[in-house]
Each structure stands twice: as structure tokens, then as C-alpha cells.
Specification:
Blueprint: H1 2-16, H2 21-24, H3 31-44, H4 66-75, H5 97-101, H6 128-139, H7 158-164, E1 180-193, E2 196-208, E3 213-221, H8 224-236, E4 239-241, E5 254-258, E6 261-267, E7 274-275, H9 279-287, E8 292-297, H10 302-314, H11 319-326
Parallel strand pairs: 7-8
Antiparallel strand pairs: 1-2, 2-3, 3-4, 5-6, 6-8
Helix pairs in contact: 1-3, 9-10
Organism: Capsella rubella
GO cellular component, one term: mitochondrial small ribosomal subunit
Protein name: Small ribosomal subunit protein uS5c
């Protein structure tokens, strides 16, 4: 049909050659809309029912063509020529061995007072004394290379491993507080329970500084060493002060009892020594008494006799305490 031929020719011209657009349409803004109307009219001739209202709508908005938009955008651009002053061109010459051979490297000069940082791979290794001093400054005297108990922490020979207990159970070090320890007795005791018998060891330990302070402790453990250590700790909790004269003897006689045990103490002249036996002698020597007489009465139990000795010592008083209570000078006590 003629309408179909016209539409095909028009679309080919418009789509292939946009410059012919102005020959067919009076205004460029309505080119697409009129083309659409003509296309619809050509297609409507083939249909059975023709609707004139659907061909061109009164409310159809004009569509801007791409060619007009492109021409308007391009026409708004202005070309600016760059000046020679603003442009900077750098030319790199080809590497010439003769030119590069004459180039001298000139490093920057260090400012005054500049100290270069040390290198880790230079210098001699630190000695053990320097390492110990550094550890002492950082962590205290415990890391100074030698522990507080006199053992070198850097020595790891067989003797040190054996004494320190490395590889086995840890060994507790003795407490250095000026007190000496003396073991009075170690016995094996048994506790009968529902499942059988429990075997343990009981230790009696006396501690003293030989300056008038003494204590008695008793404890149980599954091992002898642990029992002795626990007894020493218990003895330090029960320290008693023993009154003595300048001749290292008692100021007066005294008696004390604990359970069935009874102990009698008497002062002695200089040069006599400690005349006593069993636990009484150990308690007096650890207290620092050099001249005294002692007697155990009623029982041979070591723990009861040691505690009875402490009870007798606690009943003693110094001459100055008695004179202060009576309100008289010490010289009048011997009248």
C-alpha cells in the first residue's frame, strides 16, 4: 500500500540521515511525534476498526530529538588555548655512558648534633652482667641473675635441676626471716576411714632466732618434707618471747604444764650451760638461753613437754616489769 511505502522510506531517511529531518517536518521538536502519527495512520489502514482519536493525542508532549540535543551541547563548548608559560615540558636524554660516568653522588649533609641510630647487627654481644643489670632495672632484684635464695637462675646443670625439682614436683624454698628450724620429732600416723587406712606423717618443729623469740609447731602431711614445712609455718604463728637477764638465764624459777606433762625451769649461774633433756633442751637453745636448769615431770610426750616449756616461760616476768608494777626502783628488789 502507498502508506506503508511512505513510512518505510521516511524512517530510512530519518534514521540514516538526520540532516534530512528538516525537509520532511516543519519544526524539529515535533518530528518524532508526527512520525509516530504517520506510522499509526499507516498501520490503522490495515485494521478493521479505525479510531481517529487514537492517532494523535492532544495531550502528547513534544519529544526532543537526539540530533538537536547533540548539536546544542556541541555548540555550547568553547575551546581554550593553553599559554606557553603554563605548559612545562621535560625532556629526558638517552642514557650516555660518558655523561653518567661524570655524575658525582652528593648526599645531603647531616645537621649538627645528629646521632645515627644503632644497628642491631653491629657491636659486640652483651655480657651476662649487663643482661642481669638490665633485668634488675626492669623487673627488680629478683631477676638480677641471682635469686633471693642464693641460686643462680641462669645455671641449668644437673645439680640445679635436681635441687630445684625441675621435671618433677616443685620444691619449696625455705623462708629467710632470721629464724632457725629444728625438727624435734617425725612420726608416722594412721587415720582409719570407711574405705581403709590413710597413712600420713606428723612433724614437730621448733623455730627461734636465739634472741628471746621461740615457737613450737605441729602439722601432718603425706610426705615428710611437706609435714616439716607445714610445721615450720605453724611454729611461726605461735612465737613467744622469753625473758632473760644479761647472763642469758631466767630471771626467776617457773613451772608450767600442758596436759599430763609438767616442766620445771630454774635459773643457773654463768658457765653452767643448759642442763635439760628432750624437747625442753631444744626449746631453750632455740630461744637463746645459755645457762638454765630444766626437768620433765609426768610425761615423755615431746609435743606436750615442748608446749609445757612455753607455758612456763610465759609465766616469767622481767625485773623492770615487776618494779614498774610495784612502783619502786629496780635496786630495791634485791633488798
Amino acid at each position: 500500500p502507498p502508506n506503508t511505502i511512505f513510512f518505510s522510506v521516511y524512517t530510512n531517511l530519518v534514521l540514516d540521515k538526520p540532516q534530512l529531518h528538516s525537509r520532511f517536518l516543519p519544526h524539529p521538536k515535533t518530528s518524532i511525534s508526527m512520525a509516530t502519527a504517520s506510522a499509526l495512520s499507516s498501520l490503522s489502514s490495515l485494521s478493521l476498526h479505525t479510531r481517529t482519536s487514537s492517532l494523535v493525542s492532544s495531550s502528547t508532549k513534544p519529544i526532543v530529538s537526539f540530533s538537536s540535543f547533540l548539536n546544542r551541547r556541541v555548540s555550547s563548548l568553547t575551546l581554550v588555548k593553553a599559554s606557553n608559560e603554563q605548559a612545562e615540558t621535560i625532556f629526558f636524554e638517552d642514557e650516555n655512558p660518558e655523561i653518567t660516568a661524570n655524575v658525582v653522588f652528593d648526599p645531603p649533609i647531616a645537621p649538627e648534633g645528629f646521632v645515627a641510630p644503632p644497628y642491631f647487627d653491629e657491636g659486640s654481644d652483651e655480657t651476662e652482667e649487663e643482661i642481669a643489670t638490665a633485668f634488675e632495672e626492669l623487673y627488680g632484684p629478683a631477676y638480677s641473675g641471682e635469686s633471693m635464695l642464693g641460686k643462680d637462675i641462669y645455671v641449668m646443670d644437673s645439680k640445679f635441676k635436681k635441687s630445684s625439682g625441675i621435671g618433677g614436683k616443685p620444691k619449696k624454698d625455705k623462708i629467710r626471716d632470721g629464724f632457725e628450724e629444728r625438727v624435734v620429732q617425725v612420726r608416722r600416723v594412721t587415720k582409719v576411714v570407711k574405705g581403709g587406712k590413710q597413712l600420713k606423717f606428723r612433724a614437730i618443729v621448733v623455730v627461734g632466732d636465739k634472741q628471746g623469740n621461740v615457737g613450737v609447731g605441729c602439722a601432718k602431711a603425706k610426705e615428710v618434707v611437706a609435714a616439716v614445712q607445714k610445721s615450720a609455718i605453724d611454729a611461726r604463728r605461735n612465737i613467744v618471747q622469753v625473758p632473760m637477764t644479761k647472763y642469758s638465764t631466767f630471771p626467776h624459777r617457773s613451772e608450767g604444764d600442758y596436759g599430763a606433762a609438767k616442766v620445771m625451769l630454774r635459773p643457773a649461774s654463768p658457765g653452767t650451760g643448759v642442763i635439760a633433756g628432750g624437747a625442753v633442751r631444744i626449746v631453750l637453745e632455740m630461744a637463746g638461753v645459755e645457762n638454765a636448769l630444766g626437768k620433765q615431770l609426768g610425761s615423755n610426750n615431746a609435743l606436750n613437754n615442748a608446749r609445757a616449756t612455753l607455758a612456763a616461760v610465759q609465766q616469767m616476768r622481767q625485773f623492770r616489769d615487776v618494779a614498774q608494777e610495784r612502783g619502786i626502783p629496780m635496786e630495791e628488789l634485791w633488798k
